[in-house]
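Researcher: Sequence recovery benchmark, item below. Answer with residues only.
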């Protein structure tokens, strides 16, 4: 909620007769709304002094200014270093710190982590980290639109053991920068790369979190100025609740986000490139290793031991030099890969199949029949149920419905909650043909996959991991068979996309951590707050 919206709401409450001291203070911002440009300033002046968080770190970065000559210049920006924010939250807001770091869930997390997890090496041994004082963290990156056709790249972080808290509380801001001003330097030293100084500071900060101590030197290895805050704190524990007792520390366990960020910024293979996958040797230009083939696939997934010599990324990136971070730290996202990808396309194909190719009446009449059946099959208290379903939500151009592949136009949560009633609807039609039975089987496999996902807290047990893999791989085989049938019929439905391929690896890697723990619903909501 913006500052202006806070003022308007408070003012409305005052006009309705509420005279609570704090509400009146908020209503009075910007001369009771008469000067809206001053509302944000007044809010910060009134309350910012009461907030006891760390100071931001200021640094110079190279950036682009298209209107200047030369276009490249160095400007000051600022960021909140994770270890600084960690300390200020732990010391000034201890109850909040305990909640957003999920301290009560840390023992459960480490208890569920597998002994053969790929994080464990000769350098990082499970026995050294599996304790209630080591917090597993995620790091998220994404672009968020803050004005028309203008977006900013935002990095945030948080605890994997924080469950059930709003993103405004549990996602912690690190830094952001306008994308239009970001310069990417392809040279190995990257001296003119806008984000390199930010990444260097983040690496230094996460190293401090892993050690659990304030750094003894800065990110360049230089000593701090005598008498400075950092010099006074050098070598002391970041947070030690009891003198001489155990200290808290944190390790960067997972990198989360959409595949666009992974590809464009973290150097994973682009989905349109010939070798489009970092988790296997599938290709676009070789029929023997075609990425979209699952039934008789010629490509092979990498084993855990393959990633050191053949990493998931195509070019080095400083993030992969962070402590604990390896190729498999990059987690395929359920939100973007499944909910907004595979699921929406399959649901769209099923609806188009029913409405345009199977039911006897015209498309609009068929849609009304299907929609009526679906509405009655929603769970009674479903919060993400659809209120309407139109042809334009199924096919991009209803006047030429067969020109392109159907992609159901729903939000991610709507797509997931739409799946059970759609499955029930297709089952009620009593499938008779092989294709109808396959279509229903695919829906049931997806339903079961999401149900198992909801059962897992942090890491699936062996039975759950096996089921997650078999269900999603089974669905991909079903979709492939339906696609082959549709092509023979001349129907533009059930076509695979790269997200189908990536979902294969999502199912394989789900054994190490539940995809639900590293999906980016929370982080995407936080992006909306930033915007």
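Model:
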């Amino acid at each position: 909620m913006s500052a202006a919206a806070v003022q308007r709401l408070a003012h409305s409450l005052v006009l309705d007769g509420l005279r609570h001291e704090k509400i009146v203070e908020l209503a009075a911002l910007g001369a009771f709304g008469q000067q809206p440009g001053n509302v944000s300033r007044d809010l910060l002046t009134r309350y910012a002094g009461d907030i006891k968080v760390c100071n931001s770190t200021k640094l110079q970065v190279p950036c682009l200014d298209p209107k200047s000559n030369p276009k490249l210049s160095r400007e000051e920006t600022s960021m909140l270093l994770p270890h600084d924010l960690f300390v200020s939250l732990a010391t000034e807001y201890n109850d909040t710190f305990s909640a957003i770091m999920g301290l009560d869930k840390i023992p459960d997390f480490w208890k569920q982590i597998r002994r053969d997890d790929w994080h464990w090496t000769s350098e990082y041994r499970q026995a050294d980290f599996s304790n209630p004082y080591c917090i597993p963290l995620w790091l998220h990156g994404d672009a968020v639109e803050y004005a028309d056709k203008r977006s900013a790249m935002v990095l945030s972080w948080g605890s994997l053991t924080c469950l059930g808290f709003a993103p405004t509380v549990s996602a912690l801001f690190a830094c952001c920068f306008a994308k239009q001003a970001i310069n990417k330097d392809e040279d190995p030293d990257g001296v003119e790369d806008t984000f390199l100084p930010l990444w260097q500071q983040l690496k230094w900060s996460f190293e401090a979190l892993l050690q659990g101590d304030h750094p003894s030197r800065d990110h360049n290895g230089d000593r701090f100025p005598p008498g400075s805050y950092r010099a006074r704190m050098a070598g002391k524990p970041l947070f030690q609740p009891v003198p001489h007792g155990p200290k808290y520390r944190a390790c960067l366990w997972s990198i989360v986000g959409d595949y666009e960020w992974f590809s464009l910024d973290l150097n994973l293979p682009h989905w349109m490139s010939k070798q489009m996958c970092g988790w296997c040797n599938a290709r676009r230009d070789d029929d023997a290793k075609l990425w979209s083939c699952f039934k008789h696939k010629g490509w092979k997934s990498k084993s855990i031991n393959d990633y050191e010599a053949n990493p998931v990324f195509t070019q080095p990136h400083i993030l992969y030099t962070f402590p604990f971070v390896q190729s498999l730290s990059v987690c395929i996202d359920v939100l973007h890969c499944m909910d907004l990808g595979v699921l929406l396309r399959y649901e769209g194909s099923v609806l188009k199949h029913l409405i345009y190719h199977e039911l006897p009446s015209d498309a609009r009449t068929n849609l009304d029949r299907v929609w009526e059946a679906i509405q009655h099959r929603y769970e009674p208290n479903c919060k993400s149920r659809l209120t309407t379903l139109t042809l334009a939500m199924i096919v991009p151009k209803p006047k030429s419905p067969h020109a392109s592949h159907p992609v159901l136009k729903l939000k991610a949560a709507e797509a997931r909650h739409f799946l059970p009633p759609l499955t029930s609807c297709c089952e009620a039609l009593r499938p008779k043909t092989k294709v109808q039975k396959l279509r229903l089987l695919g829906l049931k496999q997806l339903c079961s996959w999401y149900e198992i996902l909801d059962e897992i807290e942090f890491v699936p047990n062996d039975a759950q991991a096996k089921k997650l893999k078999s269900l999603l791989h089974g669905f991909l085989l079903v979709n492939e068979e339906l696609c082959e049938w549709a092509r023979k019929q001349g129907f533009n439905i059930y076509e695979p996309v790269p997200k189908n391929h990536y979902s294969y690896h999502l199912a394989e890697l789900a054994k190490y951590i539940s995809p639900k723990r590293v999906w980016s619903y929370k982080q995407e909501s936080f992006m909306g707050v930033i915007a």
